Amino acid sequence: MPLVVLCGPPGSGKSRRAAELREALDGPERRAHVVTEAEGGRAALRAEVERRLSRRDVVIVDAGNELRSGRYELYCAARQAGTALCLLHCAAGPPEPPFEAPDPRNRWDRPLFTVRGEEPLPLAEIRAALFDSTPPPPHRATRSQPLQSCEFLHRLDRATQDVVAAVVAAQRSGVLPGEEVRVPGVVEGLVLTRPVSMAELSRLRRQFISYTKMQPSDENLPQLASMFLQYLSRSIQ
After folding, report:
1. For residue 190, what are the β-bridge partners?
2. DSSP secondary structure of the chain
3. Which one of 18, 44, 105, 233 has the fewest CB atoms closer than 10 angstroms to its CB?
4. HSE-CB of 82 using CA atoms within 13 angstroms
5. 135-167 as b/e, with b when 16 or more CB fall inside 10 Å?
6. d(Cα 87, Cα 66) in Å, to the nearest integer?
């Protein structure tokens, strides 16, 4: 059943909102489970969400989900499970630099609901998004345009190869932890907190490709390298 993804900076009330949602959505006809980010980081969170997703129960993700790439992974999990998803943004004060605010123009950030402070949850709208809407069908690129899909996979392979090559080259040239690694043609950089081996980079690249291949959309083509950099930034800690 549906997936509710919470996002917001620390102290924005995500856990309180998750508890409110669980109380409102849990009942005899369905259970509502809250999944929190614990030891193991994003990979463990995603695995627990995928394990909990079913055709009956509601899964509520109580985590920061600061990065677009993390929210995209959860979106892909919901699409793969054939269930609806909505995003609840807990806003608090001015935006923090590490937090990438959701943008409803991105399909993985919608439908989007935003609450601030003590505002009541828009429960009627959330219920409608979860239970009265039809999950979107697979993207046309995965269903009826194999040539377009092949182009997407080629670009995905090339973009991730370029990022890995840039990280390896930067480390060989003496870039130290805390310094920024730049990838040609990409606005965003990557700040490494520690040395990263080629084996680890290859493993993370395989994981990212596996998740991203679930939804090979042309909309993501210009963002593939940036999404992979964000994935590396969150995974290499």
Report:
1. 181
2. --EEEEE--TTS-HHHHHHHHHHHH-BTTB-EEEEE--TTHHHHHHHHHHHH--SS-EEEEES---SHHHHHHHHHHHHHHT--EEEEEEE-SSPPTT-----TTSGGG-SEEEEETTPPP-HHHHHIIIIISPPPPPPHHHHT-HHHHHHHHHHHHHHHHHHHHHHHHHHHTTPPTTSEEE-TT-S-EEE-SS---HHHHHHHHHHHHHHHTTS--GGGGGGHHHHHHHHHHHH--
3. 105
4. 3
5. eeeebebbeeeeebbeebeebbeebbebbbebb
6. 12
Q: For position 160, what pLDDT does the model report?
A: 93
- pLDDT tens for the chain, residues 1 to 237: 799 999 999 889 999 999 999 999 998 888 999 999 876 677 788 888 888 887 678 999 999 999 888 898 899 888 888 889 999 999 987 767 788 899 999 989 999 999 999 999 999 999 999 999 877 655 444 343 343 456 777 888 889 999 999 999 999 999 988 899 999 888 889 998 899 999 999 989 988 888 787 766 666 678 889 889 988 988 887
Q: C-alpha distances in angstroms, 140 versus 15, 73, 136, 224?
A: 37, 19, 11, 19
